[in-house]
Amino acid sequence: MDLLEEKRRRVKQGPLPRHVAIIMDGNARWAERRGLPRIEGYSKGIEAAWRVVEVADGLGIEVLTLYAFSKENWHRPRDEVEQLMKLLEDYLRAEKERFIRSGMRLRVLGDLDDLPLTVRGLLLETIDATREHTGMLVNLALSYSGRWEIVRAVKEVAERARKGELLPQGITEEVFSGFLLTSDLPDPDLMIRTSGEKRLSNFLLWQMAYTEFYFTEVLWPDFGEEHFLDALLDFQSRERRFGLSRSQLRERREI
To answer: What is the mean pLDDT of residues 21-35?
Structure first.
């Protein structure tokens, strides 16, 4: 049995995260180190994303959220943003049917109104075509930021309160979570960030209160099945206590 097959076996024996979130970082650096245009790194990054999507779906992970483009990314040079949107459009157009055949579902977390009409249209078509699928849910975080999402939710809560539909004393963490874009999803169990950076970059700030973090030096275009399995094995080695003591956790397990 080779090393990769051994890792697959070990991962399947342990508890899997229901929801994995990934910050796909290092695309531009990957290209620059090879003397290539930055857009080539993003193109290879899309290929890496599809590899990980297929592996995660095959393992039975319920939700995979990929941080593809933040609200802050709109401030990048105009020509780079236009290239990225064109790359996304071309990919969606080329892979739409493949995604539909996969049995997975697609959803977008973010402000769809910010996206070019062609990209928005392709996304909505794919979302609609996969709505009834039963495979893994793939969340693309596009034109997304955690603070934007929280402020958006606060505005909805305030409007409900203004109408008398929600009293201040009735606003709990659970109620507030219901106003987030992920209201019907489990919070991420595991967050992976590539390229060696160790920050959240405004990603799912509310939802990752108890998420396990995994950082790797690997640049995203080089990230493949073995790296993903390494992250899952690391996750499986951790004891998740959610604020409880070890003795309390043992007691709960014994009940």
So the answer is: 97
Looking at the structure of the chain, the number of domains it has is 1
25: annotated active-site residue:
yes
Q: Which entry of 2, 27, 73, 187 is annotated as an active-site residue? A: 73
- DSSP per position, 67-135: EEEESGGGGS-HHHHHHHHHHHHHHHHHHHHHHHHHT-EEEEES-GGGS-HHHHHHHHHHHHHHTT--S
Does residue 73 have an active-site annotation? yes
**Boundaries of domain holding 40:** 17-254
pLDDT tens digits, one per residue of 105-143: 999 999 999 999 999 999 999 999 999 999 999 999 999
Quote the distance between the C-alpha of residue 172 and its chain's center.
Answer: 25
- Has residue 6 been placed in a domain? no
Which one is catalytic: 25, 57, 187, 189? 25
Percent pLDDT > 70 in the chain is 93
Which run of H or of E encompasses 63? strand 63-70
Residue 203 belongs to domain with CATH number: 3.40.1180.10
- Whether residue 1 lies inside any domain: the answer is no
